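2024-03-11 09:14:02 INFO receiving multi-entity request
2024-03-11 09:14:02 INFO entity count = two
2024-03-11 09:14:03 INFO echoing inputs for audit
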Amino acid sequence: MRAAIVTFPGSNCDYDCFKAITDVLHEEAYFVWHRDESVGDCDLVILPGGFSYGDYLRAGAIARFSPIMRDVQRFAADGGYVLGVCNGFQVLCEAGMLPGALIRNRSLQFQGERVWVRVENTDTAFTSDYEKGQLLHLHIAHGQGNYVADPETLDRLESERRVIFRYVDEHGNATDEGNANGSMNNIAGIINESGNVLGLMPHPERSVEALLGSTDGLPLFTSLAQRLATAGRSA
Amino acid sequence: MKPDASHGTAAAEAPRPRPGDPEITPELVADHGLSEEEYELILEALGREPTYTELGVFSALWSEHCGYKNSKPLLRQLPTRAPWVLQGPGENAGVIDIGDGYAVAFKIESHNHPSAVEPYEGAATGVGGILRDVFTMGARPIATLDSLRFGSLTNPRVRWLFAGVVQGIGDYGNAVGIPNIGGEVWFDDAYEGNPLVNAMAIGLMKKEDLIRAEASGVGNPIMAVGARTGRDGIHGATFASEELSEETESSRPQVQVGDPFTEKLLLEASLELIRSGHIVGIQDMGAAGLASSSSEMAARAGTGVDIDTALVPVREEGMTPYEILLSESQERMLVVAKAGHEDAVKAILEKWELEAAVIGHVTDDGMYRVRENGVIVCEIPGEPLVNECPTYVREAREAEHVRKLREWTPSQIDTTHTREHAGRVLLRLLGAPNIASKRWVYNQYDTTVRTNTVVPPGGDAGVLRIRGTRRGIAATVDCNGRYVYLNPRRGAMIAVAEAARNIVCTGARPRAITNNLNFGNPLKPEVYHQLREAVLGMGEACAAFETPVTGGNVSLYNESPSGAIHPTPVVGMIGVLDDIDQHLTVPFKDTGDAVVLLGRNTDELGGSEYLKVVHGIVAGDAPAVDLEAERRLQELMLDLNARGLLRSAHDCSEGGLAVCLAECAMTGATHFGISVELNDDLDAAALLFGEAQGRIVVSCAAASAPEVIEAAAGANVAAAVIGRVGEKDGRFEIRTRTGASIDLPVASLHEVYMTAIPRMMERPPRVDER
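2024-03-11 09:21:47 INFO inference complete, emitting structure
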């Protein structure tokens, strides 16, 4: 696996993603600056968390105009894998690469805490190393993670099994109480139609080492690494 | 004198008043916070009357905030050296060696007055300023902590302040991407009109990357970097050195507005600049802005500067030199570059979408010279300006009513109710805002970004791993202002002792402190007494624990129309863990483990939260503190942990032993019951809820308990197995010899502890309630 991590001005989880891939997975990763025109020779692009352009105007709204985003779109259209975490998810939605939008949390506050998330679909390149219905304890750290979409989009996402992660309570039920930020259908992460672009609000890269309290994010990266190893660089 | 290349020979022209400058009158001098005697000293230093611009510069540099005029003689008595201290007081931040080639820069700073009038921006810019202090040393910020004080949460305005401050700290730190790893929040009527907002930042660097804020190298260009200069925050340093009054609301324009996005860019650009070798010095344009940063950098290097305000990038037209020098616009840096490297500096800033402009150069004549389009408007000998701020030893006299309060003894209250209903009292204390969980606060902070946080907020101290090593660092901020109010010297000792206990409870060795001295008006003898005694007490404790003071901040004049705050000398302490895998946390780990109390229970109740919450009294003496015994306890903890005997550890502080045990039982992922028996022959109130110092509750495997007790005996520390960890979700049971007992489901403790503050904040504060 060789991951290109896009740094926008204001990204602040770029280094965390880099360390998760290089130090923990022992795979390759490099940074791409937002003004670059190409993502380079990679088989995964990560749009990391943070506050690109200060989240001014709307989270992710300005980053989508960055020069690099044209090539990220091209890369995805060619079937390349793209992972958007937190602010990266917001950028993917703003760029139209994923449907829906992320608005302010129901609490109207920034929320930094560990929440329960259920894996809904393990038939994707991002989740094959998880068990179906597996409960994950993952960090969220966002003020605008409340997923909204129109009813038709929600129906489509559900019927096509494109809701990949859902907020749940500690018993694994998608209750209102277990809904971390008020997202429609408790949605924490979705995938595009082709199955190569995933966006999620929780931070899998913060849960890859036992020392830091949880390794529940690790299978997301190992799933990808395994898929890419099988598929070869040119996929 | 070296001829000035760009502006001809300097000394020929004396500074002249600019057209439109106000006339220097005694009233104008007084408005600048300068006394008649101080003005005489200015006349002497200049040999003439100052211009308006010069008066403004003196006013800022000779304010308490920059010049420490009322605290310097006291601060000189603090211990500042140890073999591991790489940089002591006097720089942007202190620096200590943590081993393996790494160093940690850290400092605490207050933003009390801005937060009192504009809580969101006041607190946010406080975080911004302290982050800049750390990264200008060459260190990448890796954590923040915050120490906050407010009035009672029953007051809607206090809720507005509290909510605004927390959101401001969160929005700024979260956006820059620095985890908050700990803090403290206190609520007491003493802070009603004057909240305290102290922010601490920690940065990590390779030892060789340490850079100092010096303007060295005659002829080197001086550059303004980062955000443009606007009219915001003019005279913030002087504002911070006055009492808050009814008119303070009109000072809101003096509160700066923060932009964490620019801060993040400035952080990355500054670290890149420092590593690039293109610069010789860098300093934040913080309090008193360009005036203090440029004059202080020159004074440290023993040089002079010659700058032209017309070259400073500004946000608005028509700004005068006075305004440009004293603006406290945020996210700006002053950089001294190597001659000929200006373009390289600009290129780095441009990459990060920031500006850099050459505004002057370093000279060899020791003068602080400022021009406007080449015309000199300010020319002050640097030495008196920066290093000869007049200092004062004020009259000190303890307030009579405080002396009387200390005479209070526990025999003056009836504790029958407590003995008969100890469980109810425990629940009441767990729901008291000073003790209840502060999750409502730290859930608004990103505590795990940068993926180094091993122990997040909520424990005794935050713990971070240091990547690429086996090491970790622990950090805490502590002060019980009520103790300091009742007994300033002892209270300050306790602040240091408690911080050290918090550090050893994570398995780390205490190494150094930064301090934030929040006091009232030092011209009042009772306040100066508090300041003097507290500094002395802090110094004694720091010497006893080998935790020198590496810097900090003094915030005086914390008064509002209702009087002075409780004296609050906040201690920010750093400790080092040799092996991060051996870190300890608060919660009990397993049913059947032995619960061991290290230290001795006493009959003290003075200054306790119990006394305040249950009896409505603030009285008595602060708990006794024995620095030698504290040191032995610290060493014992480090020894026990190094031998791998401990499973958990928690400092016993506000709320006493019962609250400490409750926190051990219910703050982990699993809530455990406990079964504890206390055999001391003490009144139940003091035994369960008294705040005797020098106590830590640890747990260990039952089989290890004899070894722990033996080690304690060898270290001359009192120790006793007081019970065992019970079943998951079991009952929380404490029995005493006096018959008082507590028997509650642990879930009920958890419910009260976690929901108290969210319940009080449920009614969202509205702006019109201010």
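2024-03-11 09:21:48 INFO post-check: Residues 38 and 71 of chain A are 6 Å apart (CA to CA).
2024-03-11 09:21:48 INFO post-check: Chain A touches chain B through 31 residues (CB under 8 Å).
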